[in-house]
Amino acid sequence: MEENKKEDDKEFEPQYPAQLYIKRPNPTALLSPLYDSTFKGIFTQETEDSNLALQSFISAVLGRTVKYVILKPNEPPKDAPNQKGMSYDITVEFDNGELSDIEIQAWKEDYDYAVRAEIQASRLLNNNAKKGDNWDSPKVYQISILNFHYRKDDNKILSWYTMKNESGQGLSDRQNIIFIDLRTIRKKLGTPIEELTPVEKWGLFFSYVDNDQYADYISELVRSEKGIMAAENTVKYMSEADDNWFVQNSRFIAERDKNTQIHNAEKRGHAEGLQQGLEQGAQQKAEEAAINLLKMGKLSPEEIAQAQGLTLEKVQELKEKINHEPA
Q1: Domain boundary among 217, 240, 263
Q2: Each residue of 126-180: pLDDT tens digit?
């Protein structure tokens, strides 16, 4: 195995960059978990493999065995009409009532990602609070897998944030924000499998499962962990469908266009209204991709909603619109 790979964020990308492929490039090509459509698909299928993968990944991150998980709606309710809407990538409830939001961030955003993570964790905690006089609320975990260094001065593989005072004393630890740094994990490439931690194994799997150059190493890694083996099974199954390559491509284009909007707006100095414009642009791109997928007729409305980050109601609305278009 070669020396640990040294890379720059701009140089690393999946073996099959999404912008180049709208169908499977060859009979053995695999989708990349770095794209959120594939990442979500690994953990949200109604299959034994998907459920096992989700349990295994969460257990690896939290450092304790989580035996029972159930997927929850990924759109938390608003407390007020003017409250900002949001959606989580994957929302999971554990057997003890704790909740987790799991996100994949393949590209560095120009905004402060920590603010977004805090808002998501706070909303998750608020929605998990139980009514009563005792302020009883199980813990929540906002887990982000980052394909970049969040902080240049702190490149830990896993950073776990809670609320503490200046002396390091914590509050209730109900709100937990966890960042996993894939770029740092990739420096572990080539390390003997038995020396890797569970989180490092998952990070290398996410980064290289689609890469033929490291197939032997990743195969050994996969065999060492049943949950990762189950995840690989799901990726292989998803990769057989050309539709999933089209979805991955659509998500890449939407992400690229959103980041271009950020750059151009900041360059012009138009900070006011930026967020609203980004949301409108991303929504439009997602709806356009959903319309294309509906016309193809190979995915269900539920699958399209999940892939494009839309509500099922919006996809149904688009479907009705298509049905009423002149022949």
Answers
A1: 240
A2: 777 664 456 677 888 999 999 888 877 778 999 999 888 888 877 778 889 999 9
Residue 69 lies in a domain: yes
What does the alpha-carbon distance between residue 54 and residue 68 come to, in Å, rounded to a whole number? 10
pLDDT in tens, 216-236: 999 999 999 999 999 999 999
Is residue 1, in this structure, part of any structural domain at all?
A: no
Closest to 176 in 3D by CA, of 226, 147, 137, 205: 137
320 in the same domain as 195: no
Residues 6+ apart with CB under 8 A from 311: 75, 305
Provide the sign of the torsion angle of the four alpha carbons 288, 294, 43, 314, taken in this order.
Answer: positive
What are phi and psi for residue 159, nearest 5 degrees?
A: -115, 130
Residues 182 and 245 in one domain: no
Asked whether the whole model's pTM tops 0.85, one would answer: no
Looking at the DSSP assignment, which residues form a beta bridge with residue 94? 69
Residue 136 main-chain phi, psi, to 5 deg: -80, 120
C-alpha span between 313 and 217 (Å, rounded): 43
The residue among 246, 224, 222 whose CA lies nearest residue 234 is 222
As for how many domains the chain has, the answer is: 2
Q: Which range marks the domain in which residue 104 is found?
A: 18-240
Average pLDDT over the chain, rounded to an integer: 80
| Token digits of residue 259 | 């980041």
Dihedrals phi, psi of 186, to nearest 5 degrees: -65, -20
Contact status, residue 33 vs residue 244, Cβ threshold 8 Å: no
d(CA 122, CA 11): 34
What's the CA angle centered on 3, arms 225 and 184, to 5 degrees?
60
173, 296: one domain: no
CA angle 124, 225, 232 (to 5 degrees): 75
Question: What dihedral do alpha carbons 79, 144, 14, 248 form, nearest 10°?
Answer: -20
Separation CA 124–CA 19 (nearest Å): 33
Contact present, 199 and 180 (Cβ < 8 Å): yes
Domain boundary among 240, 259, 286: 240
